[in-house]
Amino acid sequence: MIELIPAIDIIDGRCVRLSQGDYARQKVYNENPLEVAKAFEDNGIRRLHLVDLDGAKAHHIVNYKTLEQIASHTSLSIDFGGGLKSDEDLHIAFDCGADMVTGGSIAVRDRDRFIGWIERYGKERIILGADVKDEKISTGGWLDDSEIELIPFVQGYVQAGIDRVITTDIGRDGMLQGCAVELYKKMLSEIPDIYLIASGGIGSWSDIEALQSIGVPAVILGKAIYEGRISLDEISRFIVKN
Q1: Could you say which DSSP state residue 82 is in?
Q2: Interior CA angle at 193 toward 138 and 111, to 5°?
């Protein structure tokens, strides 16, 4: 069964979604992220992808209070990302209740530090964020492009011990127009040992089925839930059935 992981993206303490990673194209869905998290929990969801968009832009953790609130009032297993650039940021995230953290920009800009995190906390708690535009890595809350090719980048970290990777096709994110099936198929073919978490573009159950059909083990859902394309009732039934 493919693992369904809902996302809560935070700006100014509110639950928002961006379109194609553009901070100027944000929509607020709920003023209270805890309320959203509890609704997920009530429908059988056990895993949450929580993203500090303010932190990603500021290059340090910002919305740790939101993390702490959700962690202390739900039993969700939280993967936290956005703005984790230092050992202090990492300590704050774990102290505030994150079970796992996702490092994206830090993995590009400070490889030694990121590998140190893997060695210190273990591959179960450190996830590689490998977000792309045209198969090249983007960083800094998707504001900064690079010439780093996705596949060699991920392969390098697999050799360093990583096995969980979140890859978002930024051009599809928040657009509800389908996910990058061919990209994920290529990743699974060339890096078969990774636990690939697909993200970006999910707009219907058919997109989830397409990912499941090629062997993607997990997918992050965001706007499709908030816009009612995929309901929590449907997710609940899927979880119970599987």
Answers
A1: S
A2: 40
Of 52, 54, 89, 131, the catalytic one is 131
- Active-site residue, 89 included: no
Q: Do residues 232 and 226 lie in contact, with contact meaning Cβ atoms separated by under 8 Å?
A: no
80/50 Cα distance (integer angstroms): 5
CA–CA dist 172, 202 (Å, integer): 8
What pLDDT score does 22 carry?
73
Tokens of 122: 């273990």
| Total residues found in the chain within this entry | 242
For residue 54, indicate whether it is catalytic. no
The strand ranges marked E within 70-226 are 77-81, 100-103, 126-129, 132-133, 136-139, 144-149, 164-168, 195-199, 218-221
Q: What is the Cα–Cα distance from 188 to 182, expressed in whole angstroms?
A: 10
Alpha-carbon 87 to chain mean position: 20
- For residue 179, which of 195, 164, 193, 167 has the smallest C-alpha distance? 167
Q: In what order do the strands lie in the sheet with 132-133?
A: 132-133, 136-139, 144-149
Angstrom distance (rounded) from CA 123 to CA 117 = 9
Distance CA 205, CA 165 (A): 22
Cα three-residue angle 67-204-5, rounded to 5 degrees? 25
pTM exceeding 0.85: yes
For 72-109, the pLDDT digits (tens) are 999 999 999 998 999 999 999 999 999 999 999 899 99
> How far is it, in rounded angstroms, from Cα 90 to Cα 80?
10
Q: What's 2's DSSP letter? A: P
Tell me whether strands 3-11 and 14-19 are parallel, antiparallel or unpaired: antiparallel
